[in-house]
Amino acid sequence: MGSFSITHWLILLVVVVVVFGTAKLKNAGKDLGGAVKGFKEAVKDENTEHAKKRVVLDHDGTAHTDERPATIKVDDKHNV
Question: Nearest Cα to 21, choosing from 7, 29, 31?
Fold first, then answer.
């Protein structure tokens, strides 16, 4: 009981084509491709929404994301 050989896969493919037909398999492929495309678009939209929420305003009003490294300002009067 090992892995399937190429002849097993070919017989399985022929059985699937006979049972379902090429038209149903073609439609199933289109549906699967559309689902994958929709999933990718949803993930991309979620990432852009998440990036918009992570924008932070500095005291001077400039916007940046949280991914920018923090800077420490040091005065002569106050040692930080």
Answer: 29
Query: What DSSP string describes the chain?
Result: -----HHHHHHHHHHHHHHH-HHHHHHHHHHHHHHHHHHHHHHHHHHHHHHHHTEEE-TTS-EEETTSPP-----SSS--
- Asked whether the predicted pLDDT for residue 80 surpasses 70, the reply is no
- Gap between the Cα atoms of 16 and 29, Å rounded: 14
* pTM confidence score: 0.45
Nearest-angstrom CA–CA distance, 41 and 68:
26
